[in-house]
């Protein structure tokens, strides 16, 4: 079995190397579809992207079902949510079954945002970058799975596992409707899933592949302070009324200090303590503060230690202030006193912080601090969407298979990492399908997802497609 696997993989790897132009042209085709999910005027393009995937999978002999989540109110109009594309290839009871998730929608992008080139025209640079919106997040990985399946077929290599695909078009806008679909289809379309794999994250650095076994959750808050019925002129009313923006900025300053410590009483009580064994996992990783400073183009990093920076990103909670709605923010000067302002902030949560407890502690703190101001304004605190943290074991067979696949392709052991961001659907898959989830990244740390000049390195894209095939083979050999 091992020799057959080795021969098939070598054959597969050679095909990928010999067909890089075709593989990049395929990525160029999908990047050209501006599937921006947060803007109503692009909704037809998001749906077109879903149809492209459906046609491509059906062309490879997969059974496909389009699940339509329903309508959505967006920017003052009713539009249809993009379809969730469910695909199935293979139903051999003797084979293990993998469910693969990805998303085909992207963040907004305009050349005027600061892009060097048209964001929806893939450009291959001389230094090996494939630049275009969605190239790394998440069209490159989604396409990679499809191209992996196609390559096996062209080579006459038996697919060593059964495949179930779940590709959505609303990830960048909150995955509206997906949770319900996954739970509804857990004993239907997804029945029999042994393992789940998500490729929607990145290497820790730029030189070494990784496997990800932990994500932070996210609680989002709005703090509304209101005063007069309408905006006021500061020359007439300044010094005569209590101003909502003054009260709000005082409140927001009580949430976190300059070095990132959350000031809400009791917020750290739920956080798991680090162990000596865990502390060792931060040693020898490729991450360096100096690289971070170079990427930021500014030395505003809080911690001197590389390990402490990673702990602050991965396994401790953080609180970030995001903005103030209702306050004057345009260029120039304006002497207005806003009648109502809304502060926005979020708390990234870690094991074993509970959503409800975080909401309760935060609301209690803000109400107590507001009372100290003796303000005649009114306060309203509301908790918006929340996603839970996720943590797995890197010793699980799914991770073992991923590590072996990385060793085959990259000739090195993977780094085992956690991430500071959130992919809430990870936990939904794990709970609904009762199957372990592996985060298997294709892109590198400096790809600039959500930013200008987003890219995936040609190296990561091509070797990533190889990795997907190796992962299937290693799952089959468990």
Automatic annotation (TrEMBL):
Keywords: Hydrolase, Manganese, Metal-binding, Metalloprotease, Protease. Mn(2+) 2 binds at residues 103, 137, 200. It holds the Pfam family Peptidase_M20. Substrate binds at residues 200, 233, 335, 348, 422, 450. Residues 214-371 form the Peptidase M20 dimerisation domain. Binds 2 manganese ions per subunit. GO terms for biological process: proteolysis. Its cofactor is Mn(2+). The record marks 233 as: Important for catalytic activity. The active site is at residues 105, 171. Mn(2+) 1 binds at residues 137, 172, 450. CDD domains: M20_dipept_like_CNDP (cd05676). InterPro entries: ArgE/DapE_CS (IPR001261), CNDP/DUG1 (IPR017153), Cyt/Met_Dipeptidase (IPR051458), Peptidase_M20 (IPR002933), Peptidase_M20_dimer (IPR011650). One of its GO terms (molecular function) is metallodipeptidase activity. It comes from the Eukaryota. PANTHER family: BETA-ALA-HIS DIPEPTIDASE, CARNOSINE DIPEPTIDASE 2, ISOFORM A. Belongs to the peptidase M20A family. This is Peptidase M20 dimerisation domain-containing protein.
